[in-house]
Every structure is written in C-alpha cells, then in structure tokens.
Design goal:
Helix content is 45%, strand content 0%. The protein is mainly α. The protein has a domain at 73-98. The radius of gyration is 38 Å and the shape is elongated.
Length: 98
Amino acid sequence: MFRPKFPEAPALPSAQVIGPSVPAVQHSHAPACSCQHTAPAPAPARRVVPGIRGGTVAAVVTVGIVLTALLAAVAVTAISVAVAAVVMRSLLGSQRRR
C-alpha cells in the first residue's frame, strides 16, 4: 500500500549476432616511442555497507531522539520529586518545633 509503484521496464529487442564475412586481419605496429608507459592506477573501491539505507539511518536517529527525550523526562521528574521532598521535610520539621 505504501510502496511506490515503478513503471515496467520496456522489453529489449532480441539481438541476432551475425558472423563477420571478412576474416579479421592482425596488424603489428612498432611502438611510437621507446619509453615505458604504465597504466593509470585504478580508483579506490567505494565501500558500501550492505543493509544500511537511508530509512535505517532515519530510524536509528528517531529512536535515539525518543530515548533521549525519555531520559530527560525521567531526570526532570526525579528533580521535581526531590524538590517536593525537601519542601515537605521543611514544612513537617517546622511543625514539630512549635
């Protein structure tokens, strides 16, 4: 239901291979210079981590935000309970002295 619908890929025409009617001729050429040429270095391979996509990263970030919010809520609740306990202790202590 929530998955995107992609259009169907067009069918590729079948290719027929026709053999060459003229045999291939091999030519041997002398090198233009006597220096030694080296092939360019291959580009470094791109490292792809399988299974990690944009949705996975978004889910991890969302879970992290929710857990941080829950931790902050617990901390605020603990502080307010501690303040209430100090106020109650102060009120009860002043009544005993009278």
